[in-house]
Amino acid sequence: MTEIEKHPLKYLSENMGVALGLVLIWRGLWYGLDAIDMWVFGGTHMFTAIFGVLLGVLILYLPHRDLSALERL
């Protein structure tokens, strides 16, 4: 059965399940990183924020060796 042949409610529920799962993963990561901030840096988010921005730019750069993905922002 292809995606088009699925019942609309089943298709919607599967996609909502995927979206909810992704949100919960990111929520867990966010709280985990906040705990590391509290433990290592005493609650100062500046160091991990700068590191996060640099790591994000690096992740966007590495696959194609350019930053064209940032042009959409």
Give a structural overview:
With 73 residues, this protein is an all-alpha fold. The protein folds into two domains: 1-42; 43-73. It is 68% helix and 0% strand. The radius of gyration is 18 Å and the shape is flat. The model has no long low-confidence stretch (mean pLDDT 84).
Distance between the termini: 37 Å
Poorly predicted regions: none
Structural class: mainly alpha
The largest sheet, given as strand count, sense and whether it forms a barrel, is: none
The strand count comes to 0
Number of helices: 2
Strand content: under 5%
- The 3D shape can be described as flat
| Residue-averaged pLDDT | 84
> What is the total number of structural domains?
2
Please give the share of residues in helix.
55-70%
H/E series: HH
Work out the radius of gyration: 18 Å
SSE blueprint:
Layout: H1 8-41, H2 46-61
Keywords:
mainly alpha, 0% strand
Concise synopsis of the structure shown:
This protein is mostly helical and 73 residues long.
